[in-house]
Every structure is written in C-alpha cells, then in structure tokens.
Amino acid sequence: MTHSALSPEPFVILGMPRTGTHYLEALLNEHPNVLSNGELLNTYDTNWPDKDRLLRSDRELLELAYLRFPRRSDKKVTHVGCKINEPQFIERPGFFDELARWPGLKVIFLYRRNTLESLRSLEQARQSRQWLKFTSDDDAAPPPRVKLPIASCEAYFNAAEDFHIRVEQSFASASLLEIEYERLLSESAACLQTIWDFLGAPSLQHTGRAILQRQEWRPLDETVENFDALRRHFAGGPYARFFEIDGEFVSKG
After folding, report:
1. Helix (H) or strand (E) run with residue 109 in it
2. Is beta strand 133-134 parallel, antiparallel or unpaired with respect to 34-39?
C-alpha cells in the first residue's frame, strides 16, 4: 500500500503490563498534534469504535491504527500512535514482526527498574479489579497485599527480559526511545521533552493536568506477603537485585 505524504507519523508505546503506559499516553495526548489511541489489541478499549477489529489481519489492524484511526475534532494530528503490552503479542504471535515492518515507526519502550514491582502491581490490579487511579480516588483503600508464586515470578522476569531484548534487536537505535518509569514520574517535563524531540513534534510545556496517579507507594516487603521466601529463592541469581531490602528498589516502594 502507498502511504500518503500527509499521513501522520506513526509511533507505538511498548512495555510490560503496569509500567506506566497509560500514564505516558495521557501525557502525550495533552499535545495538540499527538494522538495515541489506547490499546490496539485490547477488545475492551473504548478508544476503538470498531469492536470487531481483532478479526482483521495484522496488516489491516496496523492500517486501522495508523491510516484510518479514530480522530478527534480538537486536534490537528501529525503524530499518531497506540500502545501494546507484551502479553498481547503472545495472543497474536505474528503481530510483532508485522509491527516492526511498518514504515517510519517510532517506538517508545517503557520499563521499570524493578520488574518485581510491575508483577506486584499486576497481581494487585487483578485482585482488586482497580486498574487505574485518578486524582478523585485519593480516599480509596490501598491495593491489597499479594502472594506471588515462585514460578510466576520466574516466568514474568524471563518474559520481561526477553521482551526488552526483542525490542532492542528489532528496531534501529534511531527509531527506539527507552523511558524509565521512575524517571517519568519524577521528571515528567524532561521526559516529555525527550519524547517530543524523538517524535519530531513541537515542544510543549508540561501542564501537569494528567489525572492518572500511581496506585502503590508502599515498599515491596510490605506488600508481597511471601517476600522473604522469594528473596531466599532468587538469592545469588540474576534476579536477586529485585529483592535488595537495603537497596533503592525496595526502600522506595
């Protein structure tokens, strides 16, 4: 298919679950020329009026995302994107390779310093069914404490590492921007400026109006019921750093 010279420049937000992709998307959508339309491969995402879109081929889905995307009357869109979490590629095996072939694609990859925090947050959301926290939810109860099976931790840690490697190997360095979740929280304005430069979008001062909030601030050893058992199991291995009680990962929650 021939792409029109007037088509918006495409980008995608990639990451493991619970790495701040919703928050980043909210920040990006403050820009008058940037539009990110949520989770392309999520059947229940309300950004997409076509509820049967997942019956389409991988190529047709990408054409929907980047050429025939839902538009907003308040934006003159020059950069259009969506977001995809790692498990969604498992459910649709050929989609990653099709995505990597899309012309001119820019990739924003989000990751957390400590993958255990991502898994803890995912399990908390599954149990509470509270996937997002907004400013108006300040009086809500904190997320539940969780117990994480060793096998689930190993599988998740391996999946996160493999996904990071796959992304780095599949996209040229000039087309890939890696953003640390913790830095996005603490230095939002600086991160956004880096992203505007990466996308080639005009600079926009960060307004701070994004209403999504971090749900969990408590340390890992207070919120993972079997933290000590997990720490003993992973001691001396490649993932031992996720359980450093005196390190910054655990002490900062």
Report:
1. strand 106-111
2. unpaired
Q: Give every CB contact of residue 139 below 8 A, 6+ residues apart in sequence.
A: none
Taking only the tens place, the pLDDT of each residue in 145-188 is 999 999 999 999 999 999 999 999 999 999 999 999 999 988 98
- 191-226 CB burial, b ≥16 within 10 A, e <16: bbeebbebbebeebeeeeebebbebbeebbbebbee
User: Which H or E run contains 177?
Assistant: strand 176-180
Supply 112's token pair: 């957390």
What is the distance between the alpha carbons of residues 224 and 48, in angstroms, rounded to a whole number?
36
pTM, entire model:
0.89
Beta bridge partners of 146: 224
Residue found under tokens 């599988």: 155
Q: Is 211 helix (H, G, I), strand (E, B) or coil?
A: coil
Nearest-angstrom CA–CA distance, 126 and 53:
25
CA dist., res. 56 & res. 54, Å (int): 5
Q: Which residues pair with 133 in a beta bridge?
A: 213
Which amino acid does the sequence have at 2?
A: T
From residue 94, alpha-carbon distances to 13, 20, 159, 186 in Å are 18, 25, 17, 36
Instruction: List helix spans (H) across the chain.
Output: 21-28, 58-66, 86-91, 95-100, 115-128, 150-170, 181-186, 188-199, 220-223, 227-234, 248-251
Sorted by sequence, the CB contacts under 8 Å of residue 2 that are 6+ apart come out as: none
For residues 103 and 101, give the distance between their C-alpha atoms in angstroms, rounded to a whole number. 6
